[in-house]
Amino acid sequence: MQELKHIIFNTVTEASRKMAPGELEKSVAGATGLDRKTVRLAIKDLVSLGELTYTYVYGTSFLEKSFDRPVRVSKRIVIKPPDKTYQPQPGDVVLSIAGGAAFGNGAHPSTYLALRALDRILSDCHFVKLDTPLKGLDIGTGTGVLAIALAGLGVHEVVGLDIDVCAVSEAIHNVQLNGLAAQVSISNTPLEGLKQCFAVIMANLAYPTLTRLSSLLSKKLEQGGVLILSGFKEPATKDLRDAYAEQDLRLIQEEIDREWVCLVFRKPGQP
Fold first, then answer.
1. pLDDT digits 0-9 by tens, 183-200
2. Rg for the chain (alpha carbons), in Å?
3. Residue 63, burial from CB neighbour count under 10 angstroms (0-12, 13-18, 19+)
4. Binning pLDDT at 50, 70 and 90, where does residue 48 land?
5. Strand pairing class (52-57; 60-65)
6. Within a 10 A sphere around the Cβ of 82, how many other Cβ atoms?
7. CB burial class (10 A; 0-12, 13-18, 19+) of residue 66?
8. How far is CA 99 from the centre of its chain?
9. How far apart are alpha carbons 52 and 65 in whole angstroms?
10. Region 253-267: what's the mean pLDDT?
11. Helix ranges (DSSP H) in the chain
């Protein structure tokens, strides 16, 4: 039964799109040769254990990985609800994120794609060996998860911006939960109102907004700095690549998960 649960869990997490319960049963039964009733019982156990959860979109139910427990989203980053305990492994960065109305508990592909990209970038000796303190910016911060990850991974000074006052309140709460109030400031200040530039900028935003902000984001990025974009699907990728290439930014990474895309650009020059 444990091996069956492992197969079911991997089928859900590695699928290119959301899977309905019946579709999951059929897929796993076909792959294992087991009857669908056995597979259904194993799925039920995974839901009871909090490994999987039901989500509902336009009246249709799907099974997805549950974030109501500690979940590893990258090599070093683990996200957990505040009321759950987790024993960190060496090198882990554990983020406690309280759920609310704001976007960004780590469950959406656009969020964990951005987190994975950030983890890789801040493991790069280009940044790790810098003597000067790094500044990071998270635009459209939502719950504050990306801003908190920036600080947790070693960025010394982080700014999180959101125009939604509810999101600002939730992000401040999550920053305080993680004991990072001295490093992370959250506000609804317009991007245009920021005077400083940043070594790392994260923008998990809709495609039209990312297109509109291309010039301004480039201006706010330090020489040698990195810009991580997410929040859009594959059809928008070429337009965004072109828009940011026009700002003399070089594409250095690209990752796709369930049709969602994350692009990472670097600005020429030395920090």
1. 999 999 999 999 999 999
2. 20
3. buried
4. confident
5. antiparallel
6. 12
7. middle
8. 15
9. 5
10. 93
11. 2-14, 21-32, 36-48, 109-121, 125-128, 145-152, 165-177, 207-212, 214-220, 237-245
Note the pTM of the prediction, 2 decimals. 0.79
What are the residues whose beta carbons fall under 8 Å from the beta carbon of 106, sequence distance 6 or more? 67, 71, 73, 79, 95, 97, 112, 115, 145
Q: Which among 92, 90, 70 is positioned nearest to 80, based on CA atoms?
A: 70
Residue 200, token pair as written in the block: 């790392």
Listed in order, strand segments (DSSP E) in 66-134 are 71-72, 77-80, 93-96
Neighbours of 68 (CB within 10 A): 15
Q: How many H-runs (helices) and E-runs (strands) does the chain carry?
A: 10, 12
3-state secondary structure at position 53? strand
Separation CA 143–CA 172 (nearest Å): 8
57 vs 78: CA distance, rounded Å? 26
Please, which residues bridge with residue 250 across strands?
266
As a whole number of angstroms, the distance between CA 28 and CA 101 comes to: 34
Summarize the chain as % helix, strand, coil (round to 5): 40, 25, 35
| Closest to 146 measured CA to CA, from 159, 133, 130 | 159
Calpha distance 176→45 (Å, rounded): 35
Confidence tier at 107 by pLDDT (50, 70, 90): low
Specify whether the CB–CB gap between 186 and 158 falls below 8 A: no
Residues 98 and 169: beta-carbon distance below 8 Å:
no
Q: Enter the tokens of residue 258.
A: 């369930």
Domains of the chain: 2-65 (1.10.10.10), 104-266 (3.40.50.150)
